[in-house]
Amino acid sequence: MSLALPSCRRPAVMFLAATMSVAAARADEGNPRIDYRGFAAGVAEVAALRESRRIDEGAFLTLAARPDTVVLDARSRKKYDLLHVRGARHLSFPDITADELARVIPTKDTRVLIYCNNNFENEERAFARKMAPAALNVHTFNVLHAYGYTNVHELKPLLDVRTTKIPFAGTAADGHGRYAQR
């Protein structure tokens, strides 16, 4: 019986093993639960993968409509309740843990679509603009990868909430999935 992993799984397993060993070896002095160098190494390792997984509006719509896809919104509950992509599951970024991710995402190879504040304009209450290097997408993508999620895709463009084809839900949406200007 062979214990070899399928080639498609080897990079993810290698990344996870490297991340865990880096974390153990380089945890911040005085606090083994914080590891900036390990985080930075993980970011460097997934940079090319992240770039290849950034998708346009059409691909996002197509994938989001599939029942085997989870759309994840990691913004605050307040912003999510105001306006979010229809069908998105909410898990606020500060609440991300292995157990919470497992509750929201069925398996580590489930297709996950992410978006953030910086993907939408003309609704600052729900999608408050962040500095580009601090965009929630970059953090969420890296954290999901660090937890072993291997099929993450990120909405790439900046879209106008008034004209996007992506449907919304929340108190600032109408019954047709459109942003209801108030």
Describe the protein's architecture and organization.
The structure is a single chain. It is globular and about 50 Å long. The chain has two domains: 9-52, no CATH class; 53-182, Rhodanese-like domain (Oxidized Rhodanese, domain 1, 3-Layer(aba) Sandwich), CATH 3.40.250.10. The strands form three sheets. A five-stranded parallel sheet has the order 1-7-5-2-4. With 182 residues, it is α/β, with parallel strands linked by helices. Helix 1 (10-26) runs antiparallel to helix 2 and helix 2 (36-52) packs across helix 6 (136-146). It is built from six helices and nine strands, in the order H-H-E-H-E-H-E-E-H-E-E-H-E-E-E. Helices cover 36% and strands 14% of the residues.
Q: Percent helix among the residues?
A: 25-40%
First and last CA, distance: 64 Å
Radius of gyration (CA) equals: 17 Å
CATH second-level architecture of the largest domain: 3-Layer(aba) Sandwich
Query: What number of structural domains do the residues give?
Result: 2
Main beta sheet, described?
5 strands, parallel
The number of distinct helices, counting runs of at least 4 residues, comes to 6
The CATH superfamily name of the largest domain is Rhodanese-like domain
By CATH reckoning, the class of the largest domain would read Alpha Beta
- What sequence of helices (H) and strands (E) makes up the elements? HHEHEHEEHEEHEEE
By DSSP, the count of extended strands is 9
Strand content: 5-15%
